[in-house]
Specification:
With 357 residues, the protein is mostly helical. 68% of the residues lie in helices and 2% in strands.
Length: 357
């Protein structure tokens, strides 16, 4: 399933830069929501196997060890890039926003603390999308649409795309409890989440950020991922000829998505992928290359905006395109995995091996 994760990450990269010869792959919001389903599948998988008799603390700490080291490295590099840009005289809209929002002394000091905490630990980044600071009335306000709203706190995030990891972390906290629930309880959670989404959409909240950034709506996708894993448990020991066709179908739908992009195509894609994930995983779980390329998805996703900011400062227009960004992000991702993820992974696995329930 690694190739799917890689292509979804590339889809987001291209959405934030340029297409490659007109190729966009999956729409970024659809890619993010498909990642939620995949996350639900994998968390159900590891909690049913590797962490089945392990503690909640061990599961959470190991998830954080998977997320934070690479994130902190990219965060540090991004911070230094902004500081260097200011030092050499280049304007930084992000620095100006920090001054604007947190420049009212003690009255906005709490905003400074929240922004610093969220930048470092990722939690609540998705919440900040719905909040802004009104300098005129000097108060915090709720905004239903963060696009074009001056002073939205989300602008304080140094790695703006990392808000999705904040959503993931909220799910990780709930995952050990969710995967233990029976199908009936999970179905109720799924129904309530989808009903809530439908009601809000009917009342006009059918635009970004409500379409894929609001956790009460998106938890339905994580639950679908759990159901997808339970389907895998039913088929994993059976020889099913359809398994051989699942991956080609997934690749075809992913590579051709842009030609069918619509609201119906979006939901159809997520539903079909959710059904096919168990078969794709069954086919590819022992493929080391597939795993390696899938492991690139997270570092590529986290680092690509940093790489893009660096490319924009190089006065060579031919470098400012999606293909260069994909290549450089992949190379940087390989380096991050080799020097950071792999050594930490040994430590993570040792924790699991030598831990007690």
């Amino acid at each position: 399933m690694g190739i799917l994760r890689f292509l979804l990450a590339i889809s987001v990269v291209l959405a934030h830069s340029t297409t490659i010869g007109g190729i966009q792959l999956v729409a970024p919001d659809t890619a993010v929501q498909t990642f939620y389903v995949i996350s639900g599948f994998y968390m159900a998988l590891v909690l049913d196997s590797k962490y089945k008799e392990k503690s909640y603390k061990l599961f959470i700490s190991n998830r954080l060890l998977r997320i934070y080291p690479i994130y902190w490295i990219v965060l540090s590099l991004t911070f230094f890039l902004i500081i260097i840009s200011v030092f050499i005289g280049n304007s930084s809209s992000k620095i100006m926003l920090w001054k604007e929002i947190t420049g009212h002394g003690f009255e906005t000091f709490y905003l400074f603390l929240v922004a610093v905490f969220s930048n470092i630990f990722l939690f609540f980044q998705d919440w900040l999308i719905f909040l802004k600071y009104d300098n005129i009335n000097e108060k915090l306000q709720f905004v239903s649409d963060f696009h074009g709203n001056k002073g939205v706190l989300y602008g304080l995030m140094l790695i703006p795309q990392a808000w999705t990891i904040g959503v993931e972390l909220m799910f990780y906290l709930l995952a050990p409890f969710l995967v233990k629930r029976n199908n009936f309880i999970l179905s109720i959670i799924l129904f309530l989440s989808l009903t809530f989404r439908f009601i809000m959409y009917k009342n006009g909240f059918n635009y970004d950020p409500w379409t894929y950034r609001f956790f009460p709506f998106e938890i339905s996708l994580f639950v679908i991922g759990i159901f997808s894993f339970r389907l895998y448990k039913k088929i994993k020991k059976n020889e099913i000829s359809f398994t051989n066709f699942a991956l080609p179908i997934v690749l075809f739908l992913t590579l051709s998505y842009q030609f069918f992009d619509s609201e119906i195509a979006r939901y159809s894609y997520i539903i079909i992928i959710s059904i096919l994930i168990p078969f794709v995983f069954k086919k590819t779980k022992l493929n080391n290359f597939d795993k390696k390329i899938g492991d690139l998805s997270y570092p590529i996703y986290i680092c690509h905006i940093l790489i893009w900011l660096v490319l924009e400062k190089i006065p060579i227009p031919m470098l400012h395109n999606g293909l260069v960004l994909v290549v450089l992000s992949s190379i940087f991702g390989l380096l991050l995995n080799h020097f950071i993820t792999e050594p930490i992974e040994i430590y993570r696995q040792n924790k699991v091996t030598f831990s007690r329930k």
